[in-house]
Structure formats: structure tokens, C-alpha cells
Write a structure and sequence with these properties.
Strand order of the largest sheet: 1-8-7-4-5-6
Helix content: 25-40%
Low-confidence stretches: 14-36
Number of strands: 8
Order of helices and strands: HEEEEHEHEHEEH
Largest sheet: 6 strands, mixed
Number of domains: 2
Shape: globular
Strand content: 15-25%
Oligomer: single chain
């Protein structure tokens, strides 16, 4: 003889199943809308220098040698730890890799103040105030890093903090 499941338990199970189904559907929609990052060419893009002397960032600038694009913003808490570590890293002035910061979804004055107050003036940075470049690269969240091979192929992307050691591992693999 089977016992009837009380109504509140059925309701909780039904709601739980519905939430699980919606979550799976949402992940599927996001995955379909976001192309795989690795092994695709950089899209065409451009951004002005953050400060005088910084590079004007274009997709062409990051071709010819391995490059690392580090997306950050002054208001991003993890960026406040990541950017100074990358700016102080030994590879920043290396001829083996081009490391360029991309200040995104930020105000120029706040970004410049951030670099100065965090001892990160050495990090060359472009200014993408609207986040168009991050969006074109399917980056949703900060900090984010894009590793680019010398031929302009995206080797990998990473959303979350990146260390100087992570960059060194990429460079070691890219320069084989």
C-alpha cells in the first residue's frame, strides 16, 4: 500500500524541480550565446589610451607576439590586488609578451587615480569605458584575462584574478 505524499512536500518538490529545470535552461541559453573562447581569432576592436603614453589598443597591436589583455576597473575589489601584482611582475617589460591592461566600464579619472594609488603606473592601459571590447570577447565579470597567441588566436580566457605566475606559464608555452 502506498502512502500519499503530503501536499506541502509535493509543492516543495515541484518548486525544486522547476528551479532546477529553469537553471539548466538558463545555462544552455548562455552557453549558446557565448562562443568558445579558445582557438578563435580576436574580433576587430579598438580603444584609446587610458593616459598619455599608453598604447591605443587595437586587435592589430596584440598580433606579432604573445599578448595578455588584463581587463580591470577601479571599482573592482579583486582588481585592487591583481593589478599591482601584475604591474610589479617581471614579464611586464619583457620582450617575450605584450601585457596590456584594459580599464573597462569605468571613469577615466578614477582609473588613473587607481593606478597611481596602487603603485601600478607601469601597467600600460587602454580605456574601454563602455565595455565593448569585453563584450566582444564574451567576458562577463572582472577581473578577466585574455591570452592571445602571436597570430591573433585566443589561446584562453579567464574570468577571475590572474597572477604573474599564470602569465609566466602562458608565455612559457607560447614561446616554444
Amino acid at each position: 500500500m502506498s502512502r500519499a505524499v503530503p501536499a506541502p512536500t509535493r509543492t516543495v518538490r515541484t518548486i525544486g524541480a522547476a528551479i532546477a529545470a529553469l537553471s539548466i535552461a538558463a545555462i544552455g541559453v548562455l552557453a549558446v550565446g557565448r562562443p568558445a573562447s579558445a582557438d578563435r581569432s580576436l574580433p576587430t576592436f579598438g580603444a584609446p589610451p587610458l593616459r598619455p603614453g599608453d598604447p591605443q589598443l587595437t586587435d592589430q597591436l596584440v598580433r606579432g607576439q604573445p599578448a595578455v589583455l588584463v581587463f580591470w576597473a577601479s571599482w573592482c575589489e579583486p582588481c585592487q590586488r591583481e593589478i599591482p601584482a601584475i604591474a610589479a611582475g617581471p614579464l611586464l617589460h619583457s620582450n617575450r609578451v605584450r601585457i596590456i591592461g584594459v580599464d573597462t566600464n569605468d571613469r577615466r579619472a578614477d582609473a588613473i587615480s587607481f593606478l597611481e594609488s596602487h603603485g601600478s603606473e607601469a601597467l600600460p592601459s587602454a580605456f574601454d569605458d563602455t565595455g565593448r571590447i569585453a563584450e566582444a570577447l564574451s567576458l562577463y565579470g572582472l577581473p578577466a584575462t585574455v591570452y592571445v597567441e602571436a597570430d591573433g588566436t585566443i589561446a584562453a580566457t579567464h574570468v577571475g584574478p590572474t597572477s604573474a605566475n599564470d602569465i609566466a606559464r602562458f608565455v612559457a608555452g607560447a614561446n616554444r
